[in-house]
Each structure stands twice: as structure tokens, then as C-alpha cells.
Design goal:
Blueprint: E1 2-12, E2 15-25, E3 31-34, H1 46-60, E4 65-66
Parallel strand pairs: 1-4
Antiparallel strand pairs: 1-2, 2-3
Length: 71
């Protein structure tokens, strides 16, 4: 199963919110799951943190996914 970080749009108290989640894909490359909570940048070293931040930036260039598509 493959995964990457993606921006998810969600309505919360009548407002649109955006957060980055880990999104999982089926064998056809279709998103079919995501983490329950948004992800946050972290690492055990500065280099590792930089690596994850680069992946977050890539997520900003992908189409935004909708929260309701995963319910």
C-alpha cells in the first residue's frame, strides 16, 4: 500500500479548514484511507525534519482532497 501527504479540506463549524494528512491508496492509485488526525512536521534530527517538510510542500501542489470523500 502506498501513501503520501495530502491536503484535506473539511467543513468545521461552518468554516472551511485545511490540514495535511497521510493518505493511503489502493492498487489502482485511488485514495482509500487517511489518518484520523492531521500530521505535523517532526523528526529525530534536523535533517529528518527537513525531509518531511519537503514532502509537506509537495502536498501543497497536489489537488486538494475532500474530507467527505473518506467517510
Amino acid at each position: 500500500m502506498s501513501w503520501n501527504y495530502r491536503v484535506i479540506q473539511r467543513k468545521f463549524e461552518h468554516e472551511d479548514t485545511f490540514a495535511i494528512y497521510e493518505v493511503y491508496y489502493d492498487n489502482n492509485g485511488k485514495p482509500n484511507g487517511m489518518t484520523e488526525q492531521p500530521s505535523y512536521p517532526h523528526g529525530y534530527s534536523l535533517q529528518e525534519l527537513k525531509k518531511y517538510l519537503k514532502k509537506y510542500i509537495l502536498a501543497l501542489d497536489e489537488p486538494i482532497l475532500q474530507w467527505d470523500d473518506f467517510e
